[in-house]
């Protein structure tokens, strides 16, 4: 079963979907569709399927759309009987999903910082807004370090994949942000997780 995926090569949410597909052994079922996703001017081809115009947006064989990354990842988890990214045990499943939500919230704030610094005309730049979003990034990193390490160090789940993609995005777009010195155990975990074949195969272009 082929899944057609509107994607952007640098989108961390697209990367989360692709990492899941690699981990589940179904990457050959993903057909990447080129897109012109942009936070300001939407791609009309994506808007036809997803009113937000965001990537990732997926199309199933019957042209049914799936969005956003959480829905697509959950669907990918059903395509193979290999280890579940959304654990069968209810407690573990909701723990993994909450970790995913935390990672995605960090990513959302980081993206807003990126847009504020790069896309907004300089005369309209709002430093307080940027700094407030970065505070969300920092408090999220603190929570990953102080509350979630045991879960991260367990079996690979949607939570650990989302976390790794979020940390990788921080390195990619905020290379001057030294999050490792204040989150040393998280940094050790991320270094190890980044060696996985799924992460190596999905490095942003």
What would you say this structure looks like, in words?
This protein has 205 residues and is of the alpha+beta class. Helix content is 53%, strand content 6%. The protein is built from nine helices and four strands. It has helices at 12-24, 44-47, 69-76, 90-118, 127-147, 149-152, 158-173, 184-193, 197-200; strands spanning 3-6, 30-33, 57-59, 65-66. Strands 2-1-3-4 form a four-stranded mixed sheet. β3 (57-59) and β4 form a beta hairpin. α1 (12-24) packs across α7 (158-173). The model has no long low-confidence stretch (mean pLDDT 95).
Structural descriptors:
alpha+beta; four-stranded mixed β-sheet; 9 helices
Judged by helices, strands and strand pairing, the structural class is: alpha+beta
How do the strands of the widest beta sheet line up side by side?
2-1-3-4
Task: Give the helix level as a range of percent.
Answer: 40-55%
Radius of gyration: 17 Å
The biggest beta sheet reads:
4 strands, mixed
State the separation between the terminal residues, measured CA to CA: 27 Å
Low-pLDDT residue spans: none
Beta-strand share of residues: 5-15%
Tally of strands: 4
Shape, per Cα inertia axes: globular
Please give the count of helices.
9
Mean pLDDT: 95
Helix and strand pattern: EHEHEEHHHHHHH
């Amino acid at each position: 079963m082929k899944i057609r995926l509107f994607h952007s090569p640098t989108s961390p949410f697209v990367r989360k979907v692709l990492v899941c597909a690699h981990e589940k052994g179904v990457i050959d079922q993903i057909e990447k569709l080129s897109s012109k996703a942009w936070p300001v001017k939407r791609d009309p081809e994506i808007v036809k399927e997803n009113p937000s115009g965001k990537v990732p947006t997926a199309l199933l064989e019957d042209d049914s759309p799936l969005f956003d990354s959480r829905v697509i990842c959950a669907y990918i988890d059903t395509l193979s009987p290999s280890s579940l990214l959304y654990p069968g045990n209810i407690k573990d499943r909701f723990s993994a999903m909450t970790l995913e939500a935390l990672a995605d919230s960090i990513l959302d704030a980081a993206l807003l910082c990126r847009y504020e610094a790069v896309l907004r005309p300089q005369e309209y730049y709002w430093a307080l807004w940027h700094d407030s979003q970065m505070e969300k990034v920092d408090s999220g990193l603190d929570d990953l370090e102080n509350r979630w390490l045991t879960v991260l160090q367990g079996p690979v789940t949607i939570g650990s994949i989302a976390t790794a993609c979020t940390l990788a995005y921080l390195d990619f777009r905020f290379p001057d942000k030294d999050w490792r010195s204040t989150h040393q155990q998280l940094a050790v975990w991320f270094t190890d997780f980044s060696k996985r074949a799924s992460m190596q195969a999905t490095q942003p272009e």
